[in-house]
Structure prediction request, 248 residues.
Amino acid sequence: MSGGTGSVRAGAQEPAPEGGDEAAEDGRAPVDFDAFFTAHRPALLARAVMLCGNRQDAEDAVQDAFLAALENWDRISGYEQPNAWVSLVMRRKLWRALRLRLKAKRAALDVTLPRQALPDETAQARRVLTAMAALPPRQRMVLVMYSLYAMTHQEIADDLNIAASTARGNLRKGRDNLRRMLGLAPDTDPLGEVPLVGTGGPAPGDRLAAALSAAESWLCSAFEEDEQAPRQARADLAGRQREGMGRK
Prediction:
């Protein structure tokens, strides 16, 4: 799944992208934006929902992130991992939006059920997403960044502009709360011993991370099968780009 990683710090500051050191130097041709948008939008949207618990907020952050990339595509397309830059912009937009609220809205999933998903898989994914939406925003953000982006406590702290101890504490509370809501057994090892989860999948035995990964995969499949939404989203991006150019 191409949801991006937390390891690309990229110096990618939004909205004015930096990070020339991340640009590819192999002389390859720039990636076509439409192909990039189509390939990465489902996974990015799935992860945004995991981060914020609300589809509309996720859609807004993903659109804003892709718009930032589109407006600077000559530069962003040369990065080794342009999807990681877009993911970073999306996370920061969601974090700023969540910090302005006293309470996050509950999950508004409103997604087409994946055709290949079994009823049990759908029921479990909805349980996980509903439980995630009930977590305090900071706990949810830290939990997803640790479990799905494979980010360290310090990387999470840097990304959210909080102390590493705060990131660690919110991760512990988030895991405890989510486990309780899902009826999972407590961690058997100290929190510092819980393995990171990355693109290789959940660490063996970490049932909580496995549940998060399965819910994200379910969401991604749902968004990949929604054929109308990407076309409309791309048209909206083009319209917003024209509006922005008209104001300059």
In short: The chain has one domain: 20-247. The chain is about 60% helix and 0% strand.
